[in-house]
Protein 1
Amino acid sequence: GAVVSQHPSRVICKSGTSVKIECRSLDFQATTMFWYRQFPKKSLMLMATSNEGSKATYEQGVEKDKFLINHASLTLSTLTVTSAHPEDSSFYICSIFHVDEQFFGPGTRLTVL
Amino acid sequence: QKEVEQDPGPLSVPEGAIVSLNCTYSNSAFQYFMWYRQYSRKGPELLMYTYSSGNKEDGRFTAQVDKSSKYISLFIRDSQPSDSATYLCAMSVGNEKLTFGTGTRLTIIP
Protein backbone atom coordinates (compact mmCIF):
# COMPACT_ATOMS: atom_id res chain seq x y z
CA GLY A 1 0.00 0.00 0.00
CA ALA A 2 0.91 3.66 -0.16
CA VAL A 3 3.40 4.92 2.32
CA VAL A 4 3.12 8.36 3.80
CA SER A 5 5.90 9.76 5.94
CA GLN A 6 5.94 12.70 8.28
CA HIS A 7 8.82 14.64 9.74
CA PRO A 8 9.47 15.27 12.53
CA SER A 9 7.67 12.60 14.51
CA ARG A 10 7.86 14.69 17.64
CA VAL A 11 8.67 18.32 18.31
CA ILE A 12 8.78 20.42 21.44
CA CYS A 13 8.97 24.16 21.05
CA LYS A 14 8.62 27.35 23.04
CA SER A 15 5.49 29.44 22.86
CA GLY A 16 5.68 32.02 20.09
CA THR A 17 7.91 30.04 17.76
CA SER A 18 6.92 28.52 14.43
CA VAL A 19 7.06 24.84 13.62
CA LYS A 20 7.09 23.20 10.20
CA ILE A 21 5.80 19.68 9.67
CA GLU A 22 6.48 17.80 6.44
CA CYS A 23 4.26 15.19 4.85
CA ARG A 24 5.63 13.08 2.01
CA SER A 25 3.88 10.62 -0.25
CA LEU A 26 6.50 7.98 -0.97
CA ASP A 27 4.64 5.71 -3.38
CA PHE A 28 2.21 7.91 -5.26
CA GLN A 29 1.92 11.38 -6.61
CA ALA A 30 -0.68 13.23 -4.61
CA THR A 31 -2.35 16.33 -5.98
CA THR A 32 -4.36 16.46 -2.78
CA MET A 33 -3.24 15.86 0.77
CA PHE A 34 -5.22 16.26 3.96
CA TRP A 35 -4.14 17.61 7.33
CA TYR A 36 -5.85 16.42 10.50
CA ARG A 37 -5.44 17.31 14.14
CA GLN A 38 -6.15 14.95 17.02
CA PHE A 39 -6.35 16.05 20.65
CA PRO A 40 -5.95 13.45 23.41
CA LYS A 41 -8.92 11.10 23.57
CA LYS A 42 -10.59 13.04 20.78
CA SER A 43 -11.36 12.30 17.19
CA LEU A 44 -9.32 13.29 14.17
CA MET A 45 -10.55 16.61 12.91
CA LEU A 46 -9.88 17.68 9.35
CA MET A 47 -8.06 21.00 9.33
CA ALA A 48 -7.46 21.61 5.68
CA THR A 49 -7.13 20.13 2.24
CA SER A 50 -3.78 20.80 0.62
CA ASN A 51 -3.86 21.24 -3.15
CA GLU A 52 -0.73 20.98 -5.25
CA GLY A 53 -0.01 24.25 -6.99
CA SER A 54 -2.90 26.17 -5.46
CA LYS A 55 -4.20 27.47 -2.16
CA ALA A 56 -5.25 25.10 0.56
CA THR A 57 -8.90 24.79 1.54
CA TYR A 58 -9.44 25.27 5.26
CA GLU A 59 -12.24 23.87 7.37
CA GLN A 60 -14.49 26.18 9.30
CA GLY A 61 -12.83 27.48 12.45
CA VAL A 62 -9.27 26.79 11.30
CA GLU A 63 -7.16 29.94 10.99
CA LYS A 64 -5.42 29.93 7.65
CA ASP A 65 -2.90 32.56 8.76
CA LYS A 66 -1.91 30.46 11.72
CA PHE A 67 -1.69 27.12 9.95
CA LEU A 68 0.18 27.76 6.73
CA ILE A 69 0.04 25.00 4.17
CA ASN A 70 2.36 24.69 1.19
CA HIS A 71 1.91 21.92 -1.35
CA ALA A 72 4.82 22.68 -3.62
CA SER A 73 5.18 19.31 -5.30
CA LEU A 74 3.18 16.18 -5.97
CA THR A 75 4.90 14.37 -3.12
CA LEU A 76 5.34 17.01 -0.44
CA SER A 77 3.02 19.13 1.64
CA THR A 78 4.10 21.20 4.63
CA LEU A 79 2.11 22.53 7.54
CA THR A 80 3.62 25.43 9.46
CA VAL A 81 2.15 26.29 12.83
CA THR A 82 2.99 29.95 13.25
CA SER A 83 3.43 31.61 16.63
CA ALA A 84 2.57 28.37 18.37
CA HIS A 85 0.83 28.45 21.74
CA PRO A 86 0.24 25.68 24.29
CA GLU A 87 -3.30 25.17 23.00
CA ASP A 88 -1.79 24.18 19.64
CA SER A 89 -0.22 21.13 21.30
CA SER A 90 -1.72 18.20 19.49
CA PHE A 91 -1.10 15.23 17.22
CA TYR A 92 -0.98 16.36 13.58
CA ILE A 93 -1.58 13.74 10.93
CA CYS A 94 -1.52 14.02 7.15
CA SER A 95 -3.10 11.70 4.64
CA ILE A 96 -3.32 11.09 0.93
CA PHE A 97 -6.18 9.62 -1.03
CA HIS A 98 -5.34 6.96 -3.61
CA VAL A 99 -7.96 4.93 -5.52
CA ASP A 100 -10.50 4.07 -2.83
CA GLU A 101 -8.36 4.39 0.23
CA GLN A 102 -7.00 7.16 2.38
CA PHE A 103 -3.50 6.48 3.68
CA PHE A 104 -2.36 8.22 6.84
CA GLY A 105 1.07 9.28 7.94
CA PRO A 106 2.46 8.25 11.32
CA GLY A 107 1.67 11.65 12.82
CA THR A 108 3.68 14.44 14.44
CA ARG A 109 3.25 15.15 18.11
CA LEU A 110 3.65 18.85 18.81
CA THR A 111 4.17 20.08 22.34
CA VAL A 112 4.27 23.82 22.90
CA LEU A 113 5.72 24.89 26.23
CA GLN B 1 -25.57 17.00 17.51
CA LYS B 2 -22.30 15.56 16.23
CA GLU B 3 -22.35 14.13 12.74
CA VAL B 4 -20.79 10.89 13.95
CA GLU B 5 -21.25 9.46 17.43
CA GLN B 6 -19.04 6.71 18.84
CA ASP B 7 -18.86 5.36 22.37
CA PRO B 8 -15.35 6.26 23.55
CA GLY B 9 -15.12 3.33 25.93
CA PRO B 10 -12.74 2.21 27.26
CA LEU B 11 -13.77 -1.35 26.50
CA SER B 12 -11.99 -4.34 28.05
CA VAL B 13 -12.75 -7.92 27.06
CA PRO B 14 -11.01 -11.25 27.63
CA GLU B 15 -8.98 -12.84 24.86
CA GLY B 16 -11.13 -14.89 22.50
CA ALA B 17 -14.28 -12.85 23.06
CA ILE B 18 -16.34 -11.26 20.32
CA VAL B 19 -16.04 -7.49 20.27
CA SER B 20 -18.74 -5.19 18.96
CA LEU B 21 -17.92 -1.58 18.15
CA ASN B 22 -20.58 0.84 16.98
CA CYS B 23 -21.15 4.25 15.46
CA THR B 24 -24.24 6.22 14.62
CA TYR B 25 -24.44 9.13 12.24
CA SER B 26 -26.87 11.86 11.34
CA ASN B 27 -25.84 12.85 7.81
CA SER B 28 -27.82 10.72 5.37
CA ALA B 29 -25.49 11.85 2.57
CA PHE B 30 -22.67 9.65 3.89
CA GLN B 31 -22.01 6.93 1.35
CA TYR B 32 -18.65 5.46 2.34
CA PHE B 33 -17.96 3.84 5.68
CA MET B 34 -14.62 2.86 7.12
CA TRP B 35 -13.09 1.46 10.25
CA TYR B 36 -9.57 2.42 11.21
CA ARG B 37 -7.31 1.01 13.89
CA GLN B 38 -4.91 3.34 15.65
CA TYR B 39 -2.16 2.21 17.95
CA SER B 40 -0.84 4.63 20.53
CA ARG B 41 1.05 7.56 18.98
CA LYS B 42 0.64 6.19 15.46
CA GLY B 43 -1.42 7.18 12.47
CA PRO B 44 -4.67 5.32 11.73
CA GLU B 45 -4.59 2.27 9.46
CA LEU B 46 -7.55 1.14 7.41
CA LEU B 47 -9.23 -2.07 8.53
CA MET B 48 -12.46 -2.21 6.61
CA TYR B 49 -14.12 -0.16 3.90
CA THR B 50 -17.64 -0.47 2.56
CA TYR B 51 -20.20 1.62 0.73
CA SER B 52 -23.35 -0.45 0.87
CA SER B 53 -25.70 -1.67 3.52
CA GLY B 54 -25.07 -5.20 4.72
CA ASN B 55 -22.13 -7.14 6.00
CA LYS B 56 -18.56 -7.34 4.77
CA GLU B 57 -16.19 -9.89 6.19
CA ASP B 58 -12.40 -9.96 6.20
CA GLY B 59 -10.84 -12.64 8.33
CA ARG B 60 -11.80 -12.07 11.95
CA PHE B 61 -13.36 -8.70 11.15
CA THR B 62 -16.92 -8.03 9.98
CA ALA B 63 -18.20 -4.58 9.10
CA GLN B 64 -21.93 -4.01 9.15
CA VAL B 65 -23.77 -1.02 7.72
CA ASP B 66 -27.43 -0.19 8.17
CA LYS B 67 -28.13 2.97 6.21
CA SER B 68 -31.81 3.01 7.13
CA SER B 69 -30.89 3.26 10.82
CA LYS B 70 -27.71 5.27 10.20
CA TYR B 71 -25.74 2.74 12.19
CA ILE B 72 -22.50 0.94 11.52
CA SER B 73 -20.71 -1.77 13.46
CA LEU B 74 -17.41 -3.58 13.52
CA PHE B 75 -17.25 -7.09 14.96
CA ILE B 76 -13.99 -8.73 15.93
CA ARG B 77 -14.09 -12.49 16.43
CA ASP B 78 -11.58 -14.48 18.46
CA SER B 79 -10.07 -11.27 19.79
CA GLN B 80 -6.33 -11.21 20.40
CA PRO B 81 -4.18 -9.03 22.66
CA SER B 82 -2.69 -7.54 19.50
CA ASP B 83 -6.16 -6.17 18.71
CA SER B 84 -5.77 -3.78 21.64
CA ALA B 85 -5.92 -0.33 20.08
CA THR B 86 -8.27 2.57 19.45
CA TYR B 87 -10.83 1.89 16.76
CA LEU B 88 -12.19 4.81 14.78
CA CYS B 89 -15.18 4.79 12.52
CA ALA B 90 -15.07 7.21 9.62
CA MET B 91 -17.46 8.11 6.86
CA SER B 92 -17.64 10.38 3.89
CA VAL B 93 -19.91 11.67 1.20
CA GLY B 94 -17.47 11.58 -1.68
CA ASN B 95 -14.94 9.11 -0.24
CA GLU B 96 -12.21 11.67 0.23
CA LYS B 97 -13.07 14.06 3.03
CA LEU B 98 -13.52 11.90 6.12
CA THR B 99 -15.57 12.57 9.23
CA PHE B 100 -14.36 10.51 12.17
CA GLY B 101 -15.95 9.23 15.32
CA THR B 102 -14.16 9.87 18.60
CA GLY B 103 -12.68 6.38 18.67
CA THR B 104 -13.19 3.49 21.09
CA ARG B 105 -10.22 2.37 23.15
CA LEU B 106 -10.20 -1.43 23.23
CA THR B 107 -8.11 -3.65 25.49
CA ILE B 108 -8.00 -7.42 25.07
CA ILE B 109 -7.02 -9.09 28.32
CA PRO B 110 -4.85 -12.23 27.91
Protein 2
Amino acid sequence: DGGITQSPKYLFRKEGQNVTLSCEQNLNHDAMYWYRQDPGQGLRLIYYSQIVNDFQKGDIAEGYSVSREKKESFPLTVTSAQKNPTAFYLCASRPQVAVNTEAFFGQGTRLTVV
Amino acid sequence: SQQGEEDPQALSIQEGENATMNCSYKTSINNLQWYRQNSGRGLVHLILIRSNEREKHSGRLRVTLDTSKKSSSLLITASRAADTASYFCATALNTGFQKLVFGTGTRLLVSP
Protein backbone atom coordinates (compact mmCIF):
# COMPACT_ATOMS: atom_id res chain seq x y z
CA ASP A 1 0.00 0.00 0.00
CA GLY A 2 1.19 3.53 -0.71
CA GLY A 3 1.73 5.77 2.23
CA ILE A 4 4.02 7.61 4.56
CA THR A 5 5.59 5.87 7.53
CA GLN A 6 7.13 7.39 10.61
CA SER A 7 9.16 5.47 13.12
CA PRO A 8 9.38 4.96 15.96
CA LYS A 9 5.94 5.83 17.32
CA TYR A 10 7.36 6.66 20.76
CA LEU A 11 10.91 7.80 21.48
CA PHE A 12 12.60 8.64 24.74
CA ARG A 13 15.77 10.67 24.86
CA LYS A 14 18.12 11.64 27.61
CA GLU A 15 19.09 15.26 27.85
CA GLY A 16 22.16 16.02 25.77
CA GLN A 17 21.59 13.24 23.25
CA ASN A 18 20.83 13.55 19.57
CA VAL A 19 18.02 11.43 18.17
CA THR A 20 16.86 10.77 14.63
CA LEU A 21 13.25 10.37 13.60
CA SER A 22 12.55 8.38 10.47
CA CYS A 23 10.12 9.33 7.69
CA GLU A 24 9.69 7.19 4.58
CA GLN A 25 7.17 7.53 1.74
CA ASN A 26 6.42 5.38 -1.28
CA LEU A 27 4.04 7.83 -2.92
CA ASN A 28 6.68 9.16 -5.32
CA HIS A 29 6.18 12.64 -3.86
CA ASP A 30 8.85 15.28 -4.35
CA ALA A 31 8.01 17.53 -1.41
CA MET A 32 8.39 16.44 2.21
CA TYR A 33 7.84 18.30 5.46
CA TRP A 34 8.52 18.07 9.18
CA TYR A 35 6.19 19.68 11.70
CA ARG A 36 6.23 19.94 15.45
CA GLN A 37 3.02 19.91 17.49
CA ASP A 38 2.88 20.78 21.18
CA PRO A 39 -0.10 19.78 23.36
CA GLY A 40 -3.26 21.62 22.34
CA GLN A 41 -1.36 23.58 19.72
CA GLY A 42 -1.20 23.82 15.97
CA LEU A 43 1.55 22.55 13.70
CA ARG A 44 4.76 24.51 13.33
CA LEU A 45 6.99 23.96 10.32
CA ILE A 46 10.54 22.79 11.10
CA TYR A 47 12.02 21.95 7.68
CA TYR A 48 10.77 21.16 4.22
CA SER A 49 12.28 19.76 1.07
CA GLN A 50 11.08 20.18 -2.50
CA ILE A 51 13.64 17.97 -4.18
CA VAL A 52 16.39 15.52 -3.40
CA ASN A 53 19.54 17.11 -1.92
CA ASP A 54 17.72 20.36 -1.18
CA PHE A 55 15.82 21.53 1.89
CA GLN A 56 14.67 24.78 3.45
CA LYS A 57 14.30 25.98 7.03
CA GLY A 58 10.82 26.46 8.33
CA ASP A 59 9.74 28.67 11.20
CA ILE A 60 11.42 26.75 14.03
CA ALA A 61 14.53 25.09 12.53
CA GLU A 62 16.94 25.88 15.38
CA GLY A 63 18.14 22.72 17.11
CA TYR A 64 17.05 20.46 14.26
CA SER A 65 18.75 19.09 11.16
CA VAL A 66 17.55 17.12 8.14
CA SER A 67 18.87 15.37 5.07
CA ARG A 68 17.28 14.40 1.77
CA GLU A 69 19.60 11.94 0.10
CA LYS A 70 16.78 9.88 -1.37
CA LYS A 71 13.39 10.90 -2.66
CA GLU A 72 11.68 8.43 -0.34
CA SER A 73 13.37 9.46 2.89
CA PHE A 74 13.51 12.66 4.96
CA PRO A 75 14.97 11.93 8.43
CA LEU A 76 14.88 14.56 11.16
CA THR A 77 17.60 14.80 13.80
CA VAL A 78 16.75 16.50 17.05
CA THR A 79 20.05 17.75 18.40
CA SER A 80 21.11 18.58 21.93
CA ALA A 81 20.86 22.24 20.93
CA GLN A 82 17.06 21.96 20.91
CA LYS A 83 16.17 23.18 24.39
CA ASN A 84 12.64 21.85 24.61
CA PRO A 85 12.36 18.83 22.30
CA THR A 86 9.46 17.03 23.99
CA ALA A 87 6.66 17.17 21.41
CA PHE A 88 4.72 15.27 18.77
CA TYR A 89 6.52 15.26 15.42
CA LEU A 90 4.66 14.86 12.15
CA CYS A 91 6.07 14.17 8.70
CA ALA A 92 4.14 14.90 5.51
CA SER A 93 4.60 14.69 1.75
CA ARG A 94 3.04 16.28 -1.33
CA PRO A 95 3.51 15.93 -5.09
CA GLN A 96 5.77 18.60 -6.55
CA VAL A 97 4.43 19.05 -10.03
CA ALA A 98 0.94 20.27 -9.12
CA VAL A 99 0.40 23.37 -7.03
CA ASN A 100 -3.02 22.52 -5.69
CA THR A 101 -2.38 19.24 -3.96
CA GLU A 102 -3.07 17.84 -0.54
CA ALA A 103 -0.51 16.68 1.98
CA PHE A 104 -0.33 13.14 3.26
CA PHE A 105 0.73 12.66 6.86
CA GLY A 106 2.41 9.92 8.81
CA GLN A 107 1.06 8.85 12.18
CA GLY A 108 3.63 10.83 14.11
CA THR A 109 6.45 10.24 16.58
CA ARG A 110 6.03 11.28 20.18
CA LEU A 111 9.40 12.33 21.58
CA THR A 112 9.92 12.63 25.31
CA VAL A 113 13.06 13.87 27.02
CA VAL A 114 13.74 12.03 30.26
CA SER B 1 4.97 32.25 12.67
CA GLN B 2 1.68 30.54 11.96
CA GLN B 3 -0.22 31.80 8.96
CA GLY B 4 -3.70 30.74 10.00
CA GLU B 5 -5.69 31.35 13.11
CA GLU B 6 -8.80 29.26 13.72
CA ASP B 7 -11.82 30.44 15.62
CA PRO B 8 -13.20 29.24 17.94
CA GLN B 9 -10.39 27.37 19.70
CA ALA B 10 -12.91 24.87 21.00
CA LEU B 11 -16.50 24.03 20.09
CA SER B 12 -18.94 21.72 21.86
CA ILE B 13 -22.23 20.73 20.20
CA GLN B 14 -24.85 17.98 20.19
CA GLU B 15 -25.20 15.34 17.50
CA GLY B 16 -27.29 16.58 14.61
CA GLU B 17 -26.27 20.21 15.03
CA ASN B 18 -24.07 22.06 12.55
CA ALA B 19 -20.51 23.07 13.40
CA THR B 20 -18.84 26.13 11.91
CA MET B 21 -15.14 26.87 12.20
CA ASN B 22 -13.37 29.91 10.85
CA CYS B 23 -9.83 30.47 9.65
CA SER B 24 -8.06 33.76 9.04
CA TYR B 25 -4.72 34.11 7.30
CA LYS B 26 -2.24 36.87 6.58
CA THR B 27 -0.71 36.68 3.10
CA SER B 28 -1.72 35.81 -0.47
CA ILE B 29 -2.36 32.15 -1.06
CA ASN B 30 -2.61 29.62 -3.88
CA ASN B 31 -5.09 27.49 -2.01
CA LEU B 32 -6.46 26.79 1.45
CA GLN B 33 -6.93 23.32 2.84
CA TRP B 34 -8.76 21.84 5.80
CA TYR B 35 -7.49 18.85 7.74
CA ARG B 36 -8.79 16.73 10.58
CA GLN B 37 -6.74 15.21 13.40
CA ASN B 38 -7.95 12.58 15.81
CA SER B 39 -6.20 12.67 19.16
CA GLY B 40 -2.58 11.56 18.94
CA ARG B 41 -2.77 10.73 15.24
CA GLY B 42 -1.64 12.18 11.95
CA LEU B 43 -3.70 14.65 9.95
CA VAL B 44 -6.16 13.64 7.27
CA HIS B 45 -6.99 15.91 4.36
CA LEU B 46 -10.65 16.95 4.09
CA ILE B 47 -11.00 19.51 1.34
CA LEU B 48 -8.97 21.98 -0.75
CA ILE B 49 -10.28 25.25 -2.11
CA ARG B 50 -8.33 27.24 -4.68
CA SER B 51 -7.81 30.98 -4.42
CA ASN B 52 -10.16 31.60 -7.36
CA GLU B 53 -12.98 29.53 -5.82
CA ARG B 54 -15.53 30.87 -3.33
CA GLU B 55 -17.31 27.74 -2.15
CA LYS B 56 -16.78 24.01 -2.24
CA HIS B 57 -18.74 21.00 -1.00
CA SER B 58 -17.76 17.49 -0.07
CA GLY B 59 -20.42 15.31 1.54
CA ARG B 60 -21.43 17.01 4.81
CA LEU B 61 -18.60 19.55 4.48
CA ARG B 62 -18.96 23.02 3.05
CA VAL B 63 -16.00 25.35 2.75
CA THR B 64 -16.08 29.01 1.81
CA LEU B 65 -13.19 31.30 0.95
CA ASP B 66 -13.14 35.10 0.99
CA THR B 67 -9.77 36.27 -0.29
CA SER B 68 -10.66 39.93 0.22
CA LYS B 69 -11.05 39.26 3.96
CA LYS B 70 -8.36 36.57 4.01
CA SER B 71 -10.72 34.16 5.69
CA SER B 72 -12.31 30.76 5.23
CA SER B 73 -14.98 28.79 7.02
CA LEU B 74 -15.64 25.08 7.38
CA LEU B 75 -19.21 23.96 8.00
CA ILE B 76 -19.97 20.40 9.09
CA THR B 77 -23.67 19.70 8.79
CA ALA B 78 -25.65 17.16 10.81
CA SER B 79 -22.66 16.42 13.01
CA ARG B 80 -21.99 12.98 14.48
CA ALA B 81 -20.05 11.86 17.53
CA ALA B 82 -17.43 10.49 15.12
CA ASP B 83 -16.74 14.05 13.94
CA THR B 84 -15.08 14.74 17.31
CA ALA B 85 -11.53 15.79 16.42
CA SER B 86 -9.32 18.83 15.91
CA TYR B 87 -9.67 20.69 12.64
CA PHE B 88 -6.91 22.73 11.05
CA CYS B 89 -6.72 25.05 8.10
CA ALA B 90 -3.53 25.18 6.05
CA THR B 91 -2.45 27.66 3.44
CA ALA B 92 -0.20 27.09 0.45
CA LEU B 93 1.49 30.43 0.05
CA ASN B 94 1.89 32.34 -3.21
CA THR B 95 5.60 32.79 -2.67
CA GLY B 96 7.21 29.37 -2.51
CA PHE B 97 4.02 27.49 -3.06
CA GLN B 98 5.26 24.24 -1.63
CA LYS B 99 5.46 25.76 1.84
CA LEU B 100 2.31 24.56 3.63
CA VAL B 101 1.55 26.52 6.79
CA PHE B 102 -1.00 25.40 9.38
CA GLY B 103 -3.21 27.29 11.75
CA THR B 104 -3.79 26.73 15.44
CA GLY B 105 -6.81 24.45 15.11
CA THR B 106 -10.34 24.13 16.47
CA ARG B 107 -11.14 21.29 18.88
CA LEU B 108 -14.63 19.99 18.14
CA LEU B 109 -16.55 17.85 20.61
CA VAL B 110 -19.80 16.31 19.40
CA SER B 111 -21.86 14.76 22.17
CA PRO B 112 -24.40 11.98 21.52
